[in-house]
Amino acid sequence: MTLTQNQLDAYARDGYILLSGLIPDDIAAAAAGTLWEGMGAQPDNPETWPDSRYTHHHDQAEIVACFTDDYLRAASQLCGESLEHIKTPRGATAINIFPSTEAWQNPHPHIDHAIKEHGHKTFPRPFHVATMTFLSDVEGRGGGTAVWPGSHQQIEALARSDEAHYEYMWVLNKELDKAGLNDPVVLIPQRGDVLFYAYLCAHAGSKNVSTRPRLALNYKW
Question: Would the pTM of this model clear 0.70, i.e. be above it?
């Protein structure tokens, strides 16, 4: 699969793109099964589910198989790197959101690599593109990722306004309210969909008040 110019333009404009068709359903289903096994939980027995959120790195073959040739080709185009520089990951981090009885509310934006102790600098960028690979169908208000269209440009403008002050990602992250962000869009992806987002794209996980867990993998190049 090769991305069209319209898709590349949309990514440049919005800072993210949600793509389907990169992962065959049988591969996505096998990866989901591996996550359930790793959690020691049963998909049809809520009593076995973890509380609200589960985050863990997985390196099983079923997880690695999600990074198909089409997936890597899309990552290559969005990174602006030749395919030979986009290596197949050895694993990915599961970020699973389980149903909650708390009221749903709009999530708060953040950018990645913004933990103070990790010391990531804003420029040059600490990574090219991040991905969320969805391994379950997401219902409305079911834990879909929220994204802020155009935020990568607004946040970069803020960072460039005082590069000394915003030298570190953690400083930039805590002052996102100064970037004048647009309203968020909460995505409702299906199993096998992949969200690609730029390093300064504001995003957030949202609360899951549906009846089903949201299973996803996170990886960055």
Answer: yes
